[in-house]
Amino acid sequence: MEIETQLGYRTETGRKRRERTRYKLIEAAARLVAHQGADSATIDDFAREAKVARGTFYNYFPTREDLLEALWAHVGHVPFHRIQQAITVFDDPAKRIVATMHLVAHHADEDSIWGWLLLSMSGLSQVNVDLRAYPTPDLKLGLQSGRFSFNDLTSARDLVVSAVRAMLRARLEQRASDAYVADLARMLLLALGVREPEASELSMDPSPIT
Amino acid sequence: MEIETQLGYRTETGRKRRERTRYKLIEAAARLVAHQGADSATIDDFAREAKVARGTFYNYFPTREDLLEALWAHVGHVPFHRIQQAITVFDDPAKRIVATMHLVAHHADEDSIWGWLLLSMSGLSQVNVDLRAYPTPDLKLGLQSGRFSFNDLTSARDLVVSAVRAMLRARLEQRASDAYVADLARMLLLALGVREPEASELSMDPSPIT
Description:
mainly alpha; Tetracycline Repressor, domain 2; elongated
Protein backbone atom coordinates (compact mmCIF):
# COMPACT_ATOMS: atom_id res chain seq x y z
CA MET A 1 0.00 0.00 0.00
CA GLU A 2 2.65 2.43 0.98
CA ILE A 3 4.53 1.92 -2.26
CA GLU A 4 1.34 2.39 -4.24
CA THR A 5 0.58 5.64 -2.41
CA GLN A 6 4.11 6.85 -3.08
CA LEU A 7 3.79 6.00 -6.74
CA GLY A 8 0.43 7.72 -6.89
CA TYR A 9 1.96 10.79 -5.25
CA ARG A 10 4.87 10.79 -7.69
CA THR A 11 2.56 10.42 -10.68
CA GLU A 12 0.41 13.26 -9.40
CA THR A 13 3.45 15.49 -8.83
CA GLY A 14 4.77 14.67 -12.27
CA ARG A 15 1.44 15.44 -13.87
CA LYS A 16 1.21 18.76 -12.08
CA ARG A 17 4.76 19.67 -13.07
CA ARG A 18 4.06 18.78 -16.69
CA GLU A 19 0.93 20.91 -16.62
CA ARG A 20 2.85 23.84 -15.17
CA THR A 21 5.56 23.61 -17.82
CA ARG A 22 3.00 23.31 -20.58
CA TYR A 23 1.21 26.36 -19.24
CA LYS A 24 4.50 28.26 -18.94
CA LEU A 25 5.15 27.61 -22.64
CA ILE A 26 1.65 28.79 -23.58
CA GLU A 27 2.03 31.92 -21.46
CA ALA A 28 5.41 32.67 -23.02
CA ALA A 29 3.90 32.21 -26.46
CA ALA A 30 1.06 34.63 -25.60
CA ARG A 31 3.59 37.33 -24.66
CA LEU A 32 5.75 36.78 -27.73
CA VAL A 33 2.91 36.53 -30.22
CA ALA A 34 1.17 39.61 -28.86
CA HIS A 35 4.43 41.57 -29.15
CA GLN A 36 5.97 40.36 -32.36
CA GLY A 37 3.28 38.46 -34.22
CA ALA A 38 2.77 34.74 -34.76
CA ASP A 39 4.91 34.50 -37.88
CA SER A 40 8.25 35.57 -36.54
CA ALA A 41 8.51 33.73 -33.20
CA THR A 42 10.60 30.56 -33.46
CA ILE A 43 10.75 27.48 -31.21
CA ASP A 44 14.00 28.89 -29.80
CA ASP A 45 12.21 32.14 -28.94
CA PHE A 46 9.38 30.28 -27.20
CA ALA A 47 11.77 28.08 -25.21
CA ARG A 48 13.94 31.07 -24.20
CA GLU A 49 10.92 33.14 -23.13
CA ALA A 50 9.55 30.21 -21.05
CA LYS A 51 13.05 29.51 -19.64
CA VAL A 52 13.05 25.85 -20.72
CA ALA A 53 15.52 23.98 -22.93
CA ARG A 54 14.77 23.61 -26.61
CA GLY A 55 14.56 19.83 -26.10
CA THR A 56 11.93 20.32 -23.38
CA PHE A 57 9.77 22.21 -25.84
CA TYR A 58 9.42 19.10 -27.99
CA ASN A 59 8.23 17.06 -24.99
CA TYR A 60 5.14 19.22 -24.94
CA PHE A 61 4.56 20.31 -28.53
CA PRO A 62 5.76 18.35 -31.56
CA THR A 63 5.75 21.51 -33.72
CA ARG A 64 5.53 25.29 -33.48
CA GLU A 65 2.01 25.10 -34.93
CA ASP A 66 0.91 22.80 -32.10
CA LEU A 67 1.92 25.39 -29.52
CA LEU A 68 0.14 28.14 -31.45
CA GLU A 69 -3.03 26.08 -31.73
CA ALA A 70 -2.89 25.39 -27.97
CA LEU A 71 -2.45 29.11 -27.42
CA TRP A 72 -5.49 29.88 -29.53
CA ALA A 73 -7.50 27.19 -27.70
CA HIS A 74 -6.44 28.56 -24.28
CA VAL A 75 -6.26 32.29 -24.68
CA GLY A 76 -7.80 33.29 -27.97
CA HIS A 77 -10.77 31.06 -28.47
CA VAL A 78 -12.42 31.30 -25.05
CA PRO A 79 -13.58 34.96 -25.11
CA PHE A 80 -14.48 34.53 -28.77
CA HIS A 81 -16.67 31.56 -27.89
CA ARG A 82 -18.20 33.47 -24.95
CA ILE A 83 -19.15 36.30 -27.32
CA GLN A 84 -20.78 33.81 -29.65
CA GLN A 85 -22.77 32.37 -26.74
CA ALA A 86 -23.80 35.83 -25.52
CA ILE A 87 -25.34 36.87 -28.82
CA THR A 88 -27.70 33.90 -28.89
CA VAL A 89 -30.10 36.01 -26.79
CA PHE A 90 -30.97 37.75 -30.06
CA ASP A 91 -33.09 35.98 -32.66
CA ASP A 92 -32.47 38.58 -35.34
CA PRO A 93 -29.24 37.86 -37.27
CA ALA A 94 -28.82 41.60 -37.85
CA LYS A 95 -28.78 42.21 -34.10
CA ARG A 96 -26.30 39.39 -33.62
CA ILE A 97 -23.88 40.91 -36.09
CA VAL A 98 -24.13 44.31 -34.39
CA ALA A 99 -23.76 42.79 -30.91
CA THR A 100 -20.64 40.87 -31.97
CA MET A 101 -19.03 44.08 -33.20
CA HIS A 102 -19.66 45.87 -29.88
CA LEU A 103 -18.71 42.87 -27.72
CA VAL A 104 -15.39 42.45 -29.53
CA ALA A 105 -14.68 46.15 -28.92
CA HIS A 106 -15.51 45.86 -25.20
CA HIS A 107 -13.46 42.73 -24.76
CA ALA A 108 -10.47 44.35 -26.46
CA ASP A 109 -10.78 47.24 -23.98
CA GLU A 110 -10.52 44.82 -21.08
CA ASP A 111 -7.92 42.50 -22.54
CA SER A 112 -5.70 44.05 -25.18
CA ILE A 113 -3.36 41.02 -25.22
CA TRP A 114 -6.31 38.96 -26.47
CA GLY A 115 -6.99 41.56 -29.15
CA TRP A 116 -3.42 41.64 -30.42
CA LEU A 117 -3.30 37.85 -30.31
CA LEU A 118 -6.38 37.62 -32.48
CA LEU A 119 -4.87 40.04 -34.99
CA SER A 120 -1.42 38.49 -35.07
CA MET A 121 -2.67 34.91 -35.23
CA SER A 122 -4.92 35.52 -38.21
CA GLY A 123 -2.46 33.70 -40.45
CA LEU A 124 -2.92 30.48 -38.48
CA SER A 125 -5.22 28.01 -40.21
CA GLN A 126 -7.39 27.15 -37.19
CA VAL A 127 -7.90 30.81 -36.34
CA ASN A 128 -8.94 31.59 -39.89
CA VAL A 129 -11.32 28.66 -39.98
CA ASP A 130 -12.92 29.81 -36.70
CA LEU A 131 -13.17 33.44 -37.80
CA ARG A 132 -14.68 32.61 -41.16
CA ALA A 133 -17.10 30.16 -39.59
CA TYR A 134 -18.59 32.50 -37.00
CA PRO A 135 -20.85 34.77 -39.11
CA THR A 136 -21.84 32.06 -41.59
CA PRO A 137 -24.95 30.67 -39.78
CA ASP A 138 -26.34 34.18 -39.21
CA LEU A 139 -25.70 35.18 -42.79
CA LYS A 140 -27.45 32.04 -44.10
CA LEU A 141 -30.37 32.53 -41.71
CA GLY A 142 -30.69 36.19 -42.69
CA LEU A 143 -30.67 35.30 -46.36
CA GLN A 144 -33.32 32.57 -45.98
CA SER A 145 -35.64 34.77 -43.92
CA GLY A 146 -35.27 37.71 -46.30
CA ARG A 147 -33.64 39.81 -43.59
CA PHE A 148 -30.46 40.08 -45.67
CA SER A 149 -29.90 40.08 -49.40
CA PHE A 150 -26.56 39.31 -51.00
CA ASN A 151 -25.38 37.24 -53.96
CA ASP A 152 -22.33 35.49 -52.61
CA LEU A 153 -22.01 34.01 -49.13
CA THR A 154 -18.20 34.01 -49.31
CA SER A 155 -17.85 37.69 -50.06
CA ALA A 156 -20.48 38.61 -47.44
CA ARG A 157 -18.65 36.53 -44.83
CA ASP A 158 -15.26 38.01 -45.76
CA LEU A 159 -16.70 41.54 -45.52
CA VAL A 160 -18.06 40.90 -42.01
CA VAL A 161 -14.86 39.24 -40.78
CA SER A 162 -12.60 41.92 -42.25
CA ALA A 163 -14.73 44.75 -40.85
CA VAL A 164 -14.58 43.24 -37.34
CA ARG A 165 -10.84 42.81 -37.69
CA ALA A 166 -10.36 46.41 -38.92
CA MET A 167 -12.45 47.66 -35.99
CA LEU A 168 -10.43 45.56 -33.54
CA ARG A 169 -7.15 47.00 -34.82
CA ALA A 170 -8.50 50.54 -34.71
CA ARG A 171 -9.83 49.97 -31.20
CA LEU A 172 -6.50 48.62 -29.95
CA GLU A 173 -4.72 51.58 -31.55
CA GLN A 174 -7.30 53.78 -29.78
CA ARG A 175 -8.61 55.20 -33.03
CA ALA A 176 -12.11 53.67 -32.73
CA SER A 177 -14.66 55.50 -30.57
CA ASP A 178 -18.01 53.90 -29.76
CA ALA A 179 -19.47 56.03 -32.57
CA TYR A 180 -16.94 54.51 -34.99
CA VAL A 181 -17.96 50.99 -33.88
CA ALA A 182 -21.67 51.79 -34.31
CA ASP A 183 -21.09 53.35 -37.71
CA LEU A 184 -19.14 50.35 -38.94
CA ALA A 185 -21.98 48.08 -37.73
CA ARG A 186 -24.48 50.34 -39.54
CA MET A 187 -22.50 50.12 -42.78
CA LEU A 188 -22.29 46.34 -42.50
CA LEU A 189 -26.07 46.10 -42.15
CA LEU A 190 -26.54 48.35 -45.19
CA ALA A 191 -24.07 46.17 -47.11
CA LEU A 192 -26.16 43.11 -46.20
CA GLY A 193 -29.34 44.73 -47.48
CA VAL A 194 -30.90 46.24 -44.33
CA ARG A 195 -32.32 49.70 -45.20
CA GLU A 196 -32.14 53.00 -43.41
CA PRO A 197 -33.41 54.14 -40.90
CA GLU A 198 -33.46 50.62 -39.47
CA ALA A 199 -29.73 50.08 -40.03
CA SER A 200 -28.98 53.18 -37.92
CA GLU A 201 -31.39 52.19 -35.17
CA LEU A 202 -29.99 48.68 -34.92
CA SER A 203 -26.35 49.74 -35.02
CA MET A 204 -26.13 51.11 -31.48
CA ASP A 205 -24.62 49.07 -28.66
CA PRO A 206 -27.45 46.77 -27.46
CA SER A 207 -28.26 46.69 -23.74
CA PRO A 208 -25.45 44.97 -21.83
CA ILE A 209 -25.54 41.21 -22.27
CA THR A 210 -23.39 38.69 -20.48
CA MET B 1 42.55 64.45 -68.64
CA GLU B 2 43.36 60.78 -68.65
CA ILE B 3 43.35 60.64 -64.84
CA GLU B 4 40.05 62.50 -64.72
CA THR B 5 38.51 60.12 -67.24
CA GLN B 6 39.79 57.19 -65.23
CA LEU B 7 38.40 58.68 -62.06
CA GLY B 8 35.10 59.35 -63.78
CA TYR B 9 35.08 55.77 -65.04
CA ARG B 10 35.84 54.41 -61.57
CA THR B 11 33.16 56.56 -59.97
CA GLU B 12 30.67 55.45 -62.59
CA THR B 13 31.60 51.76 -62.06
CA GLY B 14 31.33 52.16 -58.33
CA ARG B 15 27.97 53.84 -58.63
CA LYS B 16 26.67 51.07 -60.86
CA ARG B 17 27.97 48.39 -58.52
CA ARG B 18 26.36 50.09 -55.57
CA GLU B 19 23.08 50.29 -57.44
CA ARG B 20 23.26 46.60 -58.33
CA THR B 21 23.93 45.59 -54.71
CA ARG B 22 21.14 47.82 -53.46
CA TYR B 23 18.79 46.29 -55.98
CA LYS B 24 19.94 42.77 -55.05
CA LEU B 25 19.01 43.49 -51.42
CA ILE B 26 15.59 44.83 -52.44
CA GLU B 27 14.96 41.79 -54.65
CA ALA B 28 15.99 39.42 -51.86
CA ALA B 29 13.66 41.27 -49.50
CA ALA B 30 10.77 40.94 -51.98
CA ARG B 31 11.25 37.15 -52.09
CA LEU B 32 11.54 36.79 -48.33
CA VAL B 33 8.67 39.09 -47.44
CA ALA B 34 6.33 37.50 -49.99
CA HIS B 35 7.13 34.06 -48.58
CA GLN B 36 7.35 34.59 -44.85
CA GLY B 37 5.88 38.01 -44.14
CA ALA B 38 7.51 41.31 -43.28
CA ASP B 39 7.58 40.72 -39.53
CA SER B 40 9.75 37.66 -39.35
CA ALA B 41 12.57 38.41 -41.79
CA THR B 42 15.70 39.68 -40.02
CA ILE B 43 18.69 41.63 -41.35
CA ASP B 44 20.63 38.34 -41.33
CA ASP B 45 17.94 36.73 -43.47
CA PHE B 46 18.02 39.60 -45.96
CA ALA B 47 21.83 39.57 -46.18
CA ARG B 48 21.94 35.76 -46.59
CA GLU B 49 19.25 35.77 -49.29
CA ALA B 50 21.07 38.55 -51.20
CA LYS B 51 24.41 36.80 -50.69
CA VAL B 52 26.08 39.82 -49.10
CA ALA B 53 27.78 40.16 -45.73
CA ARG B 54 25.78 41.50 -42.81
CA GLY B 55 28.13 44.50 -42.69
CA THR B 56 27.41 45.26 -46.34
CA PHE B 57 23.71 45.46 -45.53
CA TYR B 58 24.34 48.47 -43.29
CA ASN B 59 26.19 50.29 -46.09
CA TYR B 60 22.90 50.43 -47.94
CA PHE B 61 20.21 50.51 -45.29
CA PRO B 62 20.73 51.81 -41.75
CA THR B 63 17.82 49.72 -40.45
CA ARG B 64 15.53 46.85 -41.43
CA GLU B 65 12.68 49.34 -41.78
CA ASP B 66 14.66 51.35 -44.35
CA LEU B 67 14.99 48.29 -46.57
CA LEU B 68 11.28 47.52 -46.21
CA GLU B 69 10.33 51.09 -47.08
CA ALA B 70 12.61 50.93 -50.16
CA LEU B 71 10.92 47.65 -51.08
CA TRP B 72 7.49 49.24 -50.81
CA ALA B 73 8.65 52.24 -52.86
CA HIS B 74 10.12 49.97 -55.59
CA VAL B 75 7.82 47.00 -55.80
CA GLY B 76 4.68 47.69 -53.84
CA HIS B 77 3.85 51.29 -54.44
CA VAL B 78 4.23 51.50 -58.21
CA PRO B 79 1.27 49.33 -59.32
CA PHE B 80 -0.79 50.82 -56.50
CA HIS B 81 -0.01 54.32 -57.79
CA ARG B 82 -0.78 53.24 -61.38
CA ILE B 83 -4.19 51.97 -60.26
CA GLN B 84 -4.87 55.28 -58.56
CA GLN B 85 -3.95 57.11 -61.76
CA ALA B 86 -6.10 54.81 -63.90
CA ILE B 87 -9.29 55.47 -61.94
CA THR B 88 -9.06 59.23 -62.49
CA VAL B 89 -10.92 58.65 -65.80
CA PHE B 90 -14.06 58.35 -63.65
CA ASP B 91 -15.61 61.44 -62.10
CA ASP B 92 -18.02 59.46 -59.91
CA PRO B 93 -16.38 58.44 -56.60
CA ALA B 94 -18.62 55.33 -56.54
CA LYS B 95 -17.18 54.21 -59.87
CA ARG B 96 -13.65 54.86 -58.66
CA ILE B 97 -14.13 52.64 -55.64
CA VAL B 98 -15.53 49.84 -57.81
CA ALA B 99 -12.75 50.22 -60.40
CA THR B 100 -10.06 50.05 -57.70
CA MET B 101 -11.51 46.78 -56.42
CA HIS B 102 -11.41 45.19 -59.88
CA LEU B 103 -8.01 46.61 -60.82
CA VAL B 104 -6.43 45.29 -57.62
CA ALA B 105 -7.89 41.85 -58.44
CA HIS B 106 -6.51 41.95 -62.00
CA HIS B 107 -3.11 43.12 -60.90
CA ALA B 108 -2.91 40.34 -58.29
CA ASP B 109 -3.67 37.83 -61.08
CA GLU B 110 -0.69 39.10 -63.08
CA ASP B 111 1.68 39.61 -60.19
CA SER B 112 0.98 37.52 -57.13
CA ILE B 113 4.29 38.51 -55.49
CA TRP B 114 3.01 42.10 -55.42
CA GLY B 115 -0.24 40.91 -53.87
CA TRP B 116 1.43 38.93 -51.12
CA LEU B 117 3.83 41.81 -50.50
CA LEU B 118 0.93 44.20 -50.05
CA LEU B 119 -0.69 41.82 -47.55
CA SER B 120 2.42 40.97 -45.61
CA MET B 121 3.67 44.57 -45.45
CA SER B 122 0.44 45.94 -44.04
CA GLY B 123 2.06 46.27 -40.63
CA LEU B 124 4.61 48.74 -41.99
CA SER B 125 3.77 52.34 -41.14
CA GLN B 126 4.29 53.80 -44.62
CA VAL B 127 2.17 51.08 -46.23
CA ASN B 128 -0.64 51.70 -43.77
CA VAL B 129 -0.46 55.44 -44.32
CA ASP B 130 -0.66 54.93 -48.10
CA LEU B 131 -3.50 52.42 -47.90
CA ARG B 132 -5.56 54.52 -45.54
CA ALA B 133 -4.96 57.64 -47.62
CA TYR B 134 -6.09 56.24 -50.96
CA PRO B 135 -9.91 56.16 -50.56
CA THR B 136 -10.11 59.30 -48.41
CA PRO B 137 -10.47 61.93 -51.21
CA ASP B 138 -13.21 59.91 -52.96
CA LEU B 139 -15.06 59.36 -49.71
CA LYS B 140 -14.93 63.07 -48.88
CA LEU B 141 -16.02 64.02 -52.39
CA GLY B 142 -18.87 61.49 -52.30
CA LEU B 143 -20.05 62.80 -48.97
CA GLN B 144 -19.97 66.45 -50.08
CA SER B 145 -21.83 65.76 -53.32
CA GLY B 146 -24.46 63.63 -51.57
CA ARG B 147 -23.37 60.55 -53.53
CA PHE B 148 -22.44 58.82 -50.27
CA SER B 149 -23.80 59.10 -46.77
CA PHE B 150 -21.92 57.98 -43.69
CA ASN B 151 -21.30 59.40 -40.23
CA ASP B 152 -17.64 58.75 -39.67
CA LEU B 153 -14.92 59.13 -42.29
CA THR B 154 -12.50 56.89 -40.35
CA SER B 155 -14.82 53.91 -40.15
CA ALA B 156 -15.86 54.32 -43.82
CA ARG B 157 -12.21 54.44 -44.87
CA ASP B 158 -11.29 51.40 -42.74
CA LEU B 159 -14.23 49.45 -44.20
CA VAL B 160 -13.09 50.18 -47.78
CA VAL B 161 -9.43 49.37 -47.07
CA SER B 162 -10.24 46.16 -45.20
CA ALA B 163 -12.67 44.98 -47.88
CA VAL B 164 -10.03 45.49 -50.60
CA ARG B 165 -7.50 43.65 -48.47
CA ALA B 166 -9.90 40.74 -47.80
CA MET B 167 -10.63 40.51 -51.53
CA LEU B 168 -6.91 40.55 -52.35
CA ARG B 169 -6.22 37.69 -49.94
CA ALA B 170 -9.17 35.67 -51.26
CA ARG B 171 -8.05 36.34 -54.86
CA LEU B 172 -4.48 35.21 -54.15
CA GLU B 173 -5.82 32.08 -52.44
CA GLN B 174 -8.00 31.60 -55.55
CA ARG B 175 -11.22 31.80 -53.57
CA ALA B 176 -12.45 35.02 -55.21
CA SER B 177 -14.20 34.76 -58.58
CA ASP B 178 -15.06 37.88 -60.59
CA ALA B 179 -18.60 37.54 -59.18
CA TYR B 180 -17.16 37.64 -55.65
CA VAL B 181 -15.24 40.81 -56.49
CA ALA B 182 -18.33 42.47 -58.00
CA ASP B 183 -20.47 41.46 -55.02
CA LEU B 184 -18.00 42.87 -52.55
CA ALA B 185 -17.94 46.13 -54.55
CA ARG B 186 -21.77 46.16 -54.54
CA MET B 187 -21.85 45.69 -50.75
CA LEU B 188 -19.32 48.49 -50.26
CA LEU B 189 -21.49 50.87 -52.30
CA LEU B 190 -24.55 49.90 -50.24
CA ALA B 191 -22.54 50.46 -47.06
CA LEU B 192 -21.66 53.94 -48.32
CA GLY B 193 -25.31 54.78 -48.96
CA VAL B 194 -25.74 54.01 -52.69
CA ARG B 195 -29.13 52.29 -53.18
CA GLU B 196 -30.14 49.26 -55.22
CA PRO B 197 -30.46 48.70 -58.16
CA GLU B 198 -27.75 51.27 -58.83
CA ALA B 199 -25.26 49.57 -56.52
CA SER B 200 -25.62 46.34 -58.51
CA GLU B 201 -25.30 48.09 -61.85
CA LEU B 202 -22.19 49.99 -60.84
CA SER B 203 -20.50 47.00 -59.22
CA MET B 204 -19.49 45.20 -62.42
CA ASP B 205 -15.99 45.44 -63.81
CA PRO B 206 -15.90 48.74 -65.77
CA SER B 207 -14.65 48.71 -69.37
CA PRO B 208 -10.91 48.06 -69.44
CA ILE B 209 -8.93 51.11 -68.44
CA THR B 210 -5.17 51.45 -68.54
